[in-house]
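Thread title: Can someone regenerate the structure for this chain?

I was given the following input by a collaborator and told the matching structure tokens would be attached. They weren't. Posting the sequence so someone can regenerate them.
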Amino acid sequence: MRRLFALMIPILLAGCAVESVDTHRRHAREHPELSWVFDCLRTNRLALVSAHRGQKDPGAAENSLHSFRDTIKRGPILIEVDVARSADGVLMLMHDETVDRTTTGSGRLSDLSYRQLRQLYLKDAAGNVLEDRIPTLEEALIWARRNGAILQLDLKRGVTANDVVAMIRDTRTERQVILIAYDLDDTLKAMRAAPEMMVSASGRTEAETAKLLAMRHPRMLGFTGVREPSPELIARMDAAQVEAITGTLGKPGERLDDIYMADGKGTEYADLAARGVALIASDRPVDAWRALKSARRDGTPCLIGGKP
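Best answer:
Regenerated them for you:
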């Protein structure tokens, strides 16, 4: 009996290890400081691509670890995720205020507990039920650390930078996140909460945009919106040494993604990079990345610390 027990110990330990999470393991791939990466992109007129809600294309499941894995297999693509709060305070990945559209459940996410949310299954854009459950932010951060991925965190209503910063630091992913802020006040709060992290800033008014650019903050990116950015705005951002993010995402049939890919080539993505857009947030990130690569505007050399 003693011998049997001794033989079972390593098996039991191995079984425990499957469930344990080592948040202090080394990165799968070490990136340079993100501020250096974006400086490199801006000065060399190269761009990276970010997958809106982590999807490789509009038909994939939103905010699912399976989609994230599938997306980064296809290219060096950043992953944008939406962070919401459950009724009992757990940070989960969900874009909508309700779970109706993307899961097998119904109701407002903020009214459902973590236990209730974890009983639901995600659905893809066609309504097919998947094996995936709603991920937590912690799971997404640990996944990013293990896979060398970079996450853009879109904080939904009721979630603040302070809520996520401690978890980012606990998972040691400070160099792998970009916090998204939608106005001057939220930008300042994010910078105070996480001075070591990158922040994507938006000005709701021209006055706010002017104040943001006047800061010349080395870890600030500037979101130009979901339309073609004006040369004048890019010039002002260049002067402030702020890198531009442009969204080609949006309503099907109207978004720049669909306009750019109407001819199957997408050369306009490379045109954005040539004009000074350092990050393209896209619903069709694989197409966008391939177009950048074809035109030699892909920013991967900056991401891996090499020479463009």
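The chain has one domain: 30-96+135-303.
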